[in-house]
Amino acid sequence: MSIVDLKVPVIGESITEVTLSQWLKPDGAYVSRDESICEFESDKATLEFPAETSGKLIHVAKAGDDLPIGGLVARIDTSVAKVEEAQPAAPQATTPAPVAEKAVAPASAAAGHPSPAAAKILKENEIAPTEVEGSGRGGRITKEDAMKAVEAKSAPAAPAPPTPQPASTPATSAPATHEAFSRNSERKKMSRMRRTIATRLVKAKNETAMLTTFNEVDLSEVMALREKYQERFVQKYGIKLGFMSIFAKACAKALLEMPDVNAYIDGNDIIYHDYVDISVAISTPNGLVVPPIRNVESLSYAEIEKEIKVLSEKARNGTLSIEEMQGGTFTITNGGVFGSLLSTPIINEPQSAILGMHAIKERPVAVNGQVVIRPMMYLALSYDHRIIDGSTSVTFLVRVKNLLEDPIGLLLDL
Description:
Elements: E1 3-7, E2 17-23, E3 30-31, E4 36-41, E5 46-50, E6 55-59, E7 66-68, E8 72-77, H1 97-111, H2 116-124, H3 143-154, H4 192-207, E9 210-218, H5 220-237, H6 243-257, E10 264-266, E11 269-271, E12 278-280, E13 282-284, E14 287-289, E15 292-293, H7 301-317, H8 322-325, E16 330-334, E17 353-357, E18 361-367, E19 370-384, H9 390-405, H10 407-411
Parallel strand pairs: 12-16, 16-17
Antiparallel strand pairs: 1-8, 2-4, 2-7, 3-6, 4-5, 6-8, 9-19, 10-11, 12-15, 13-14, 17-19, 18-19
Helix pairs in contact: 2-3, 6-7, 6-9
């Protein structure tokens, strides 16, 4: 017998542990070299783990186990040869049933291999992958397939016809009892990403001198700009001009003018940057991720919008790479898409500041001595007071406000 140990590989510089989220191949199955056998969930992404050689797979770790880098995951017995699938007796000439079974088998096998996001949704709703037909490449179950399966499962059944009551039935009924109410509780292990988010947020609150300053911005000119050029923008670039690209360009300009806000503390040193990598907060089924858009100061609005779209799709499909998750010198989070009117965002360490966008609401404001209705948004800047002074934070936020209220000047780099 020749046994090969399969160990957790080095995934990223800062990752020391992963969670075995699910097995893709059962214990005792024959696997081929480079065939994916399980999925790891790291602090930042979900990754498939391929077999290093061919042979019989022997599970060592269990789904849900936390494993250190270099920890033993499984073993492969290379002395076991692959059993040919064509061994069953030849089908009778009089029945075409085996032919139909062969045509169905590949789709059935593919249906049992969901994407990481789809697997989480199916597991949470107690739906077996074999019950879902995948529409992805090679029959892979996508997040959309999983959501449709959940909707189908939760669809209410047709109500049964009411049972006719005898005419003599009394009008009074027995009092309701507590048996009609649900009192169930359930304990679930936190995902690795959720645990990491919790740890980092608490660390940021405890280890930084975090403070938040607020302002409000009149988005009349930004909305007028988008309305005037949206159709031509879409025709030329194939993507809409959103608020995030305009906010990102305004922040990038202000960050280069005030480098302290774009810097971070490393021990007793301050690291400054002559570029702006803006991390954009994206909500996913597994939690919040903040992949950075690099060199925002040098990108066009269309390039920023396209990068946001690509990163958002990858984040929600669970396909972001470790490299795409690392870095960032400043973060923007938009709670307004969920209806938030005001919040105090928490710094994304090791960065020193984060800008919170909120819902746009029409409110009465005073303009040149007159009360007018304008689309207003509250802005919140949370910052590390150890590196950013109060005057700097307020000046930065006012600069962003002024750039947004004069988007033509922003376009002209004024």
